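My main concern about presentation is that the manuscript never shows what a single data entry looks like. In essence, backbone conformation is discretised, so a fold becomes a row of integers matching the chain in length. An entry of this sort, consisting of the sequence and the corresponding backbone structure tokens, reads as follows:
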Amino acid sequence: MKPFGRLVLRPLGSIRHARRLPLVFLALAACSSDSSQPGSAQKTSPSVCSDIIARYRARVAQGTLQCTSDAGCSRHGGVDPDDVCGGPIDAESGRALSKISSEIEEKGCPRLGYSCPAVELKCVEGTCR
């Protein structure tokens, strides 16, 4: 045995149950697979994901920036790879876009890993900003 800091390294032959190591590695690999992630149990075809993103884009295009108070404003983003951080939109459209976003999660569509800055939405003279 060779000391390595506080850890004692032993040659593989001296481990009591060395023949069981492949089973341990197999179990670890099974536990770390992506199949335990929600939405990834089923593989969704790229056309389904493209259709969802197209509906998202269409709903963004229908949205307005009109508001009567700060509560009438919402923020969209994090779904469309061509409009990563999105922007302000009316609250009704924001709720509809949130539903479409959750559908993307449910279908297991790929999502880009990005983080957009937090923005305080305000209704200024009838416009969400």
